[in-house]
Design goal:
- The chain has 201 residues and is α+β, with helices and mostly antiparallel strands.
- It is built from 6 helices and 10 strands; from the N terminus they run H-E-E-E-E-H-H-E-H-E-H-E-E-E-E-H.
- A 5-stranded mixed beta sheet has the order 6-5-4-9-10.
- The radius of gyration is 34 Å and the shape is globular.
- The termini are far apart.
- 24% of the residues are buried.
């Protein structure tokens, strides 16, 4: 009887010791570590592109000067195709590559009866320097107020890290012999773009 009583006491002690551990485990499970939500990264750049001129429409006429002060009017190119490309700024990496690629393909454009014209908000002095540095064989036209680019839907408001500003949307137009827009390129990868346009002629 004494042995049975001592065994019962030992079992009771073991049970009372085990209980706190079980409670401790339950408590630990009931309080999981709080999860921290990753903050969404701010968008680097958003664009609000205007509709602008579209294929089948008459291209807006314009009068713009090149780096040598010569006036260019779209109407004066009637009877031949025009490749009109809008770009943001002289002497920047992407715009330099684009200008250089159009320059390399210029003879092929001429062979297809097309004149290449580049347009940006830079002034005539900037265009002259940029053209001479790259030895361009086609004209760059100054559109300082972005008025012509706006008419074509290639100029508008952009947002960069919460700051709004106006700039050119890189856009290329193929205009036929009658001044009608044949094709518009909006989502442009600068490298290889000149060849892409050449194939579309």
């Amino acid at each position: 009887m004494a042995k049975a009583a001592s065994k019962a006491k030992i079992k009771a002690k073991l049970k009372t010791k085990a209980k706190p551990k079980a409670v401790a485990k339950k408590k630990a499970k009931s309080k999981p570590a709080p999860k921290t939500k990753a903050k969404p990264k701010p968008k680097a750049k958003t664009k609000s592109r205007p509709k602008g001129a579209s294929p089948g429409a008459k291209a807006p006429d314009f009068r713009l000067r090149d780096g040598n002060g010569k006036m260019h009017r779209l109407a004066s190119y009637q009877g031949k195709k025009v490749v009109l490309y809008f770009y943001p700024k002289d002497d920047t990496p992407g715009c330099t590559l684009e200008a250089d690629e159009f320059n390399k393909e210029n003879k092929k454009f001429e062979a297809k009866g097309a004149a290449v014209l580049g347009v940006s908000p830079d002034n005539e002095v900037s265009h002259k320097r940029f053209s001479e540095n790259l030895d361009l064989r086609y004209s760059l036209l100054a559109d300082p107020d972005g008025l012509v680019a706006t008419q074509f839907g290639a100029y508008g408001e952009k947002t960069l890290y919460g700051m709004k500003f106006k700039s050119v949307f890189r856009t290329t137009f193929i205009i036929d012999e009658e001044g009608i827009i044949e094709k518009v390129f909006k989502k442009i990868q600068v490298e290889g773009h000149a060849k892409e346009v050449l194939k579309a002629l």
